[in-house]
Design goal:
The protein is mostly helical. Helices cover 77% and strands 4% of the residues.
Length: 335
């Protein structure tokens, strides 16, 4: 029994890692899509596109890994979450498809490039908002009876879920801006730096609002964050967020290029840690734990063998692609 429990926890961390990898890797190219209307048409937009062209589609591998892992390893959670969040999840997928088509066609149909640029932005904004709304709706709770979703079609649409959706879009825009600071030069880099400074303030404020609202969604959240002695540990997370936000703002002011992007990733890591503190060990908060949702032990072992080969392979080719395309970029590509 102990072995089975440990295996379930291991799988929970594997899927959490895949989700986090998707958020931080696809987050910056979604952020560039969100910022696209602010960038000057022509060379600046072309340069921004070139900066993500070699890696953007590979980044979405982790979304498949996370969603497929949830279906295979925690089928009960998948069966409950998908009907509850069908609308925002479908919107996210359509947004990702829309922006992918726009990404390719803006180069191959230059006569309508302005249209494809707008499509790229719309797809990015829709995908980012839908991901945040999905997270917010999951956090606020899903109605479950027996082994099935028991809520309505619009239960996911609340002020809190919209707050999380907007907050995630702002945070993605920050990632996109810091990515451009790291990868570009000249006037585009200066513009990205100014945007990143503004978005740092916006992101920290958004994290603060979501963090302040979350403990009041469920009693268990409040106890984990506010009750003694938990608060002695959990209080360090918002403190670290504030310090990271200040460090990010200072490095941007002082001309840092790589450090802002890395610190922005750290902000996402701290936020993800806060999410884990709130919901672990549940997979459907307050309703279904990871052990209740888990597939049989034999299935977990079988899938783990495949994951043990697949995940290092993904990490290897991802690291290689980022290493090859590691320099500055302009309208002609990396140099």
């Amino acid at each position: 029994m102990l072995y089975s429990v440990d295996l379930t926890i291991l799988w929970a961390f594997v899927i959490a890692f895949a989700v986090f990898a998707y958020i931080v890797m696809d987050g910056f190219d979604l952020g560039i899509g969100i910022l696209f209307p602010i960038l000057r048409p022509g060379p600046d937009r072309d340069t921004a596109m070139n900066s993500i062209a070699p890696v953007w589609d590979g980044n979405e591998t982790w979304l498949v890994m996370g969603g497929g892992g949830l279906f295979a390893v925690f089928p009960l959670a998948y069966a409950v979450i998908l009907p509850a969040l069908y609308a925002p999840i479908l919107a996210m997928l359509l947004g990702l498809v829309f922006r992918g088509v726009a990404f390719e066609f803006r180069w191959r149909d230059p006569g309508h490039r302005a249209v494809w640029d707008m499509a790229f932005t719309v797809g990015s904004v829709v995908a980012a908002l839908a991901q945040g709304i999905t997270l917010g709706a999951l956090l606020q709770g899903i109605a479950v009876e027996g082994r099935a979703y028991a809520g309505g079609w619009w239960d996911w649409l609340t002020p809190f879920s919209l707050l999380v959706g907007v907050s995630l879009a702002i945070a993605y825009a920050l990632l996109g801006a810091t990515w451009l600071v790291m990868r570009t030069e000249g006037l585009l880099q200066l513009q990205a730096r100014r945007l990143a400074q503004q978005l740092t303030v916006g992101t920290v404020a958004a994290v603060a609002l979501v963090s302040a609202a979350t403990p009041f969604l469920q009693v268990r959240y409040f106890e984990r964050w506010m009750a003694m002695p938990n608060v002695l540990v959990t209080a360090q997370v918002p403190l670290l967020v504030a310090l990271a936000g200040y460090a990010l703002w200072r490095t941007l002011r002082n001309g840092g290029e790589r450090a802002p992007f890395l610190i922005a990733l750290g902000l996402f890591g701290l936020s993800f840690l806060g999410l884990g503190i709130s919901i672990y060990p549940d997979v459907v908060p307050g309703r279904i734990t990871i052990w209740q949702a888990a597939a049989p032990e034999a299935s977990q072992i079988f899938l783990l063998v495949g994951a043990a080969a697949l995940i290092p392979t993904i990490l290897a080719y991802t690291a290689y692609s980022y290493w090859v395309f590691r320099g500055k970029v302009d309208t002609h590509g990396y140099h």
